[in-house]
Amino acid sequence: MDIDLDLYRHEVRVSTNPLVRLSAIDVSPDHPQRTFVFLHGFGGQAEQWQYQMQEFAVENRVIALDLRGHGLSDKPGRGYEMSQIIEDLETALTLLKVKGKFVLVGHSFGGAIVTEYALKHPERVERLILIAAAGEFRLNPFFRFGLNLPGWLLRLIGPFTRSWLHAPPHALKQFFAQNLSRWRGWDKFASLTVPVLVIRGHRDRVFERPLFEKVTESIPGAEEADIGVSGHMVMLERREAVNRALERFLTGEGQRSWRESVRGPQNKKSGRDALRKGRPWLEHYELGVPYTVGVPNIPLHHLLRSAVRRFPLHPAILFEGRRMTYRRLNHEANRFENALLALGEGKGARVA
What we know:
The protein is an alpha/beta fold. 39% of the residues lie in helices and 17% in strands. It has 14 helices and 10 strands. The chain has helices spanning 50-56, 82-95, 109-120, 141-147, 151-161, 169-180, 186-190, 209-218, 234-237, 239-251, 258-263, 271-278, 300-310, 326-342; strands at 9-16, 19-27, 35-39, 61-65, 102-107, 125-131, 196-201, 223-227, 315-319, 322-325.
């Protein structure tokens, strides 16, 4: 299922002092079977989950967040310790109206964050999935040297790292000093009580190999999927293999080959069967095409405001050879709104 994830992206305000808005991608069909929440790691971004979101959004609600300081979220000068990151997550889930249990997935240091959340709120986590996670995060000397460089120098080399580091220097330095370098997860792993799947790339060399390999044996009853021919970004490098591992873990099925995955699950019952009875044309939909697509439940002015922040000078309207940028469109929309208010029209009134 191909999804334009930007259509489902909006902001949730998790703090007012300082102002911190997290960017969230939230996709859902009309009647989701379950909810997934995806968290990236140090220097990552929500879009790194694009293939998992596209796979599981057919029948489930899927949410991916940009952590504070990362991606399209706000990047304050402080607040990167673990307690604050967990508070951000709790607030975001409340504002997004995530109710009941959900599947929680974390990549790299995102695995540490979701572990902390699962220990604090085990009643909320249906299943926990750790991808490329480690018990501690010892950066190699090259990366440690880079983080110790002065901010002005890091900003100079920023254009060369932008394709794989999605956070500014001040956020990376503070996140590392206050969080990544301090976290030790071995005892925390041993205390987990929710079902856990550990996925790792067989060729992952970002951290020392034992720091990955000991994770599964540290967690009571954990399952493991060692994905061959892949490194640290395994969910991008071997997306089909990772998606199959997730599906097996969620359904309790044994190992299936890629050929069975191509043929599709057998005798799978869902709300799709009920829809087919009233909509016979759905029988002709190809495998993987969703029967319903959720419309983003976001006010239009929020989408416009987000576009102004991200693409202020990009064209929003092209008409008869003329163009209007998002910034200009927002300005004109505000002028029109103020004119209506001056005429006595109230907020929310219908105007013919």
